[in-house]
Specification:
Elements: H1 8-31, H2 45-66, H3 78-94, H4 104-131, H5 144-166, H6 180-184, H7 186-199, H8 204-223
Helix pairs in contact: 1-2, 1-4, 2-8, 3-4, 3-7, 5-7, 7-8
């Protein structure tokens, strides 16, 4: 029996959400802030760099998904993606007055973080049904030491995510930035789900792409 391949609709989902992530990563990393052109005014320079690193991770995640040979290689992302979109969309709803809704980027932001999880949740059950009865990519399990490291990462990311969310940078400036830290918290909070999903993957082959994406994000976060 063959492993389940990615369907065309998954590819379209990846492209629609991955290309904006590439644009956002380049925009933030090249300018460190998009004060007058992003959905909200990103005031602290560090916040702009952090957002650039975060969207670099998203871009690398979508590249990993697009180049996956099987749907089994992308199952790790689902619950973490729900958490990520939930944090960003929740912050948008609560602090929506921080947005400049006349900017196209603000409208695109709201569209993407409604569209991405809703579309994903329609594809996910159908793909899981198709997976039933297929063979795993490999019988080699995820190493126990790597599993422990990933669970430790999840615990650390929970603390980091809550801390970042509550300590919003730029709040005391003349034009407070109420959104950037809440959005930045989405990445570590998502890894509270992503890291265990990688640790508990049925085989290392299914987790390998996600682990590489994780390493890219952690390295970029440390360097930044």
């Amino acid at each position: 029996m063959l492993t389940p391949q990615l369907g065309l609709e998954w590819k379209l989902w990846i492209l629609l959400n991955g290309l904006p992530a590439v644009v956002a990563a380049l925009g933030f990393l090249l300018t460190a802030r998009l004060d007058g052109s992003f959905g909200w005014n990103v005031i602290p320079r560090a916040a702009g760099i952090g957002l650039g690193v975060g969207f670099l991770m998203r871009a690398s995640m979508y590249v990993q998904q697009f180049t996956a040979i099987s749907y089994l290689e992308m199952r790790w992302l689902h619950w973490g993606n729900v958490v990520f979109a939930g944090v960003l969309l929740g912050a948008t709803c609560v602090w929506g007055d921080a947005f400049h809704w006349r900017r196209l980027t603000a409208i695109a932001w709201l569209f993407l973080y409604i569209e991405e999880p809703v579309w994903m949740l329609t594809l996910w059950p159908r793909s899981e049904t198709f997976v039933a009865g297929t063979v795993a990519l490999s019988a080699i399990p995820v190493n126990a030491l790597l599993q422990g490291t990933l669970f430790l990462e999840a615990a650390l990311m929970l603390v980091a995510g809550i801390t970042i969310f509550l300590n919003h940078s730029g709040a005391l400036s003349p034009r407070p930035d109420l959104m950037s830290s809440r959005v930045l918290a989405g990445w570590p909070l998502a890894y509270v789900a992503w890291a265990p999903a990688l640790a508990l993957a049925p085989s290392f082959s299914e987790a390998r792409g996600g682990i590489i994406v994780n390493m890219i994000w952690l390295a970029a976060w440390i360097i930044a």
